[in-house]
Write a structure and sequence with these properties.
Transcription Regulator spoIIAA, 4 helices
Length: 123
């Protein structure tokens, strides 16, 4: 698997994934990269998945673990442009309702600028 990190906005890190996110070194590599970003005080992370061809259940678990770490650090982690078979893994496991996905890296980065939706009324 390949991982490249670049900034799309001063406070948003774009992590470009390519190849296979499967059990083993690939999962460890992604987890280490996200932990490095969090230690560098960059808790707003976009995982750009255009080049990610395969993701197994271990890869899904790693993405969810990264999401949890980002949330605990006061940030968020979102997905950008996952291929259909990768997105289907999120959809089938209902993780698409937890880790949000956007059609492009730009849309994903802009999601951090959007205000939070208002709380539901209790009236």
């Amino acid at each position: 698997m390949t991982i490249q990190v670049r900034g799309v906005q001063p406070d948003v890190a774009l992590v470009e994934l390519g190849g296979r996110l499967t059990l083993g070194d690939a999962c460890q590599l992604l987890l280490q990269k996200v932990e490095e970003l969090l230690r560098a005080n960059k808790p707003r992370i976009v995982l750009e998945m255009t080049g990610l061809e395969v993701m197994d259940s271990a890869g899904l678990g790693t993405v969810v673990a990264c999401y949890s770490k980002a949330k605990k650090a006061g940030g968020n982690l979102v997905l950008a442009a996952p291929q259909k078979k990768v997105f289907d893994t999120f959809r089938i496991t209902h993780m698409d309702s937890v880790v949000k996905s956007f059609p492009s890296a730009e849309a994903a980065a802009q999601s951090f600028q959007s205000p939070a939706p208002p709380a539901p009324s209790t009236i």
